[in-house]
Amino acid sequence: MPVLNRIADFTDQMTAWRRHLHQNPELGFECHQTAAFVAKRLAEFGVDEIHQGIGKTGVVAIINGQGDGPTIGLRADMDALPMDEITGAEWASTVAGKMHACGHDGHTTMLLGAAKYLAETRNFSGRVALIFQPAEENGGGADIMVQEGIMDRFDIGRVFAMHNSPDQPEGSFHTAIGPIMAAVDTFEVYVQGRGGHGAMPHLTNDPIVAAVAVVNSVQTISSRNHYSGDDLVVSVTQIHTGSADNIVPDTAYICGTVRTFDPQVRDMVKRRISQICEGQAQAYDLQIRLDYQQGYPATVNDADQAGFAIATAQEVAGADQVDPDTSRHMGAEDFSYMLNARPGCYLFLGQGEGPGLHHPAFDFNDAVAPVGASFFARLVERAQPRG
User: Fold this and answer.
1) What is the structure's pLDDT at 1?
2) Percentage helix, strand, coil, to 5, in the chain?
3) What is the largest CA-CA distance in the chain?
4) How far is CA 112 from the centre of its chain?
5) Helix or strand holding residue 11 (H, E)
6) What would the pLDDT profile of 180-213 be if each residue is shown by its tens digit?
7) CA distance 355 to 331
8) Where are any strands of DSSP class E within the chain?
């Protein structure tokens, strides 16, 4: 796995940074210690500007190159997940109920490694904006940072990010032109009936029967209202109702997730779920309320920037280690908001075999951090060569 020689020189430092971050996970927008750690490292590297408190705990750092030119943005997410760790590693989380089970500690480390190299060498023109973002897992930190004006404030012309990928070959890159990750929506259905004795259901308006009808109907959307060759997931993930074997309850609750790529399909699913709820309410003579929340949009790579990122990855890892047409993922990513604001590309970096993302035994593979840092650094040098 070829890496830039200077980045290889501080591999041990990167491992130490990553393991410190892993031991001290923070959730959502509450990445105070993480942001302070990042800012301290950036100051040690001698970056030109450090802007803190963007998106509550986000950090944007600027490194000036040699000569005039545009600004390229590189983003890493910083937040962890609300779960207990079972890795047994010496550097395991020290915070109960919180762990870096998605590798954001590794993403932050890779961008710090690139920052150290770029601040030392400055073998590029224009500027690089290093974006350290909170609340990717929940809260849409990327959206908040964009709303707070980072693209215009720092004159960012294009933007890139990457995510580690378990079970892909160590040090390999995977991306695609166009959509690469899905939009994510959440629906909640509240059924209000009239409960009573289980032996006398004729005196009730049974919310359970209505809830089951809603679930069954929702499951037909992907097969009966949508072309089966296109990507769509509609999953009911929760049903809560009832308290005893001889009581018909008053209420029932349904929750689920929708994953789409096409905005028209997204709108269709929302419309159909609403129609289903209205129809079943009438059919069962009770009240049904739908709360439909549109979440992260689809992550769509710009064709030109994806091509550029693919060529850079091939330079760093070798052509046989780069998949330029990877399958689309039904997972979601809030980097989509940054790609909606500026052209860019999102990639996956293979980290070898091991537990999957969001698993309590997951741990980032430190061996791939220099590869990711080299990719970030070469993106800048190739995008904005010195005159």
Assistant:
1) 45
2) 35, 25, 35
3) 84
4) 19
5) helix 11-23
6) 999 999 999 999 999 999 999 999 999 999 999 9
7) 17
8) 49-54, 58-64, 71-77, 127-133, 156-165, 173-174, 178-181, 183-192, 196-197, 233-241, 247-248, 251-260, 287-294, 299-301, 322-323, 344-350
